[in-house]
Design a protein that fits this description.
Layout (H helix, E strand, L loop, with lengths): L9 H16 L8 H21 L3 H26 L8 E6 L2 E3 L7 H17 L13 E2 H23 L1 E5 L2 E5 L2
Antiparallel strand pairs: 1-2, 1-3, 4-5
């Protein structure tokens, strides 16, 4: 089961979420350092998912693993758009082609479909979707992807906080309270 003494800083997770919201609304700027942000979301989501599975919360863990994958899959797209100075609102993650969501190259869109799987697990765990723009906007730009990714990350943080425990912080110290 859970290892005693392991503390996850909710404040750090909320800072990552806040960074994502800032990036998502900045449609007119190139995705400078979005790769770093996506790596942070991927790493944090994976760690949360791993902890969920330690507690026997498999669906919640799968939600986190798919979210981590979606973030990871988007890294090459964000990197390419940053190099080419393409604004987030014009950097295409997926578009509809012959009834299927694909990358601009025509390849299967792993970020789009990773979020779709995370959305499925969000429905199973919370009863609601965590994405709002996925499948609604064609083409689906990086700014919309970041909005959905961040919304799903927020949902994952809430699940983590509610299922794993309550955290108390005093000064620089934080710990899980035994309930």
């Amino acid at each position: 089961m859970a290892r005693a003494g392991v503390v996850y800083a909710i404040d750090d997770l909320l800072r990552i979420e806040s960074d994502g919201r800032r990036r998502a609304v900045d449609r007119d700027s190139p995705p400078v350092d979005d790769v770093f942000f996506l790596e942070n979301v991927s790493r944090a989501s994976f760690e949360i998912a791993d902890k969920m599975e330690e507690f026997g919360l498999d669906k919640e863990g799968n939600f986190g693993f798919w979210l981590a994958g979606a973030a990871e899959y988007a890294i090459p797209i964000a990197s390419k758009c940053e190099k080419e100075k393409v604004p987030r609102g014009e950097c295409i993650v997926a578009k509809m082609l012959n009834g299927e969501w694909v990358e601009p190259t025509g390849d299967y869109s792993l970020p789009f479909h990773g979020l779709k799987r995370a959305d499925t697990y969000s429905m199973e765990v919370t009863g609601r979707r965590c994405t709002y723009l996925r499948g609604e906007i064609d083409p689906y730009p990086l700014s919309a992807f970041l909005n959905d990714l961040t919304a799903c990350f927020h949902t994952l943080i809430d699940i983590y906080r509610n299922k794993i425990g309550t955290y108390r912080k005093e000064g620089k110290c934080a710990w899980r309270e035994i309930v």
